[in-house]
Amino acid sequence: MYNPKSMEAEEFISHEEILDTLDYAEKNKHNRELIDSILEKARLKNGLTHREASVLLACDLEDKNQEIYKLAEQIKKDFYGNRIVLFAPLYLSNYCVNGCVYCPYHFKNKHIPRKKLTQEEIRNEVIALQDMGHKRIAIETGEDPVNNPIEYVLESIKTIYSVKHKNGSIRRVNVNIAATTVENYKKLHDIGIGTYILFQETYNKESYETLHPTGPKHNYKWHTEAMDRAMAGGIDDVSLGVLFGLESYRYEFAGLLMHAEHLEAVHGVGPHAISVPRIKKADDINPEDFDNGIDDDIFAKIVACIRIAVPYTGMIISTRETEECRKRLLHLGVSQISGGSKTSVGGYFNPMPEDENSAQFDVSDRRPLDDVIKWLMQMGYIPSFCTACYRSGRTGDRFMEICKQQQIHNFCQPNAILTLKEYLEDYASPETKEIGYKLIDKELQSLVDGKVKTTVEEDLVKIETGTRDLRF
Ligand code: SAM
After folding, report:
1. 445-448: long-range contacts (C-beta < 8 A, 24 or more apart)?
2. Closest CA to ligand 1's atom 11
3. pTM, two decimal places
């Protein structure tokens, strides 16, 4: 029985409800009257239900699809302006006891070199990341209670925060580790993590169990209820995602939105962000072996429909995708991207030749961070390294409240400009600097013109920029 308020995975992600939703969406995919009424509701920018959004996703009327894309772009602008937040993943260990069939870390893979960083090696990785200009990272580990216990993760987070190299610092550590206990989530909360990230991979229980045949991750209930435990442990920023390609994309889309509705119904706050990864080639993994791969057009439609369905939720795209694909998705709703990423353990300090590579998947966008920053600015985006919300206590429902009122850019715009200036001064190439300062001048002018009402004074003082004062 479907019940978004239930704490039982199979009730808040009800298989029957998803099947009914897909049936309803299929039957109404040409229903202009219904589609118009859904679009009218969407224009209020308060989001849509999983059913309504599923109808938009299924819709194949060309003119209506153009309206969907246009609306997604508008919502993106209204909620996020022209800012794009930057981050990088940091792989700590690829030891793993699970048998996930799409991931090269699966324990039967004897070919991939296994590595776990020491604290000294973590320091070296962090210095390399800081020297690129990164301020926000997402740590990643395989699941292995012996090699990667929670104590190792906690010690690593402490190390990461402690490294201050030149003007650099990592100000927000997001954590992508396997589903764990409330007690462990509490420890992560207490040490000061940013967002807890866990991809559902697939919401279809039967497929989930087949795709995760062995190991603790096999347990669908434990995995699907993880975000509730994270919130019970005090973590109020959680990030959802599915691995597109494993199951039918329409099923995953409905499941993802139902999960967001559940978090909102139970905890009063939806997901802070949603990631949209697609399966990539990796060591012994061939994406062609999976039947549900989606092309770039369907991918773009999914991103646009998520943007419309949950306007206040950030959307993340990684370097799994090409430059061209990322460009398209940025317009349609993505608010956060990784740049200069390495998906191998120790890959920032010591880049590996291909055959010794411990990478989790092949990266498609291999450009250095400086090129990504330049590229974003050439398209008129402001790359942001801001982490102020988290450090000023604007997380969970406090963040959502401001975001839902479309007020978050009053904080974000000045902070984005300030952290971009910091990047330009400390790390940018001469060409990037030149483009950056011109962009900043233009943005400051629009702040002065009152196009964006800011809370500059309150917020600028909360930005930690070393001992320097970067105020304009
Ligand atoms: N071990 C943690 C867990 O169990 O959730 C998470 C860390 S894992 C390093 C991060 C994510 O990478 C996984 O959740 C999965 O969605 C994704 N991933 C695994 N194999 C992939 C592949 N071949 N292509 C793209 N993404 C992949």
Report:
1. 447/413, 447/414, 447/417
2. 199
3. 0.95
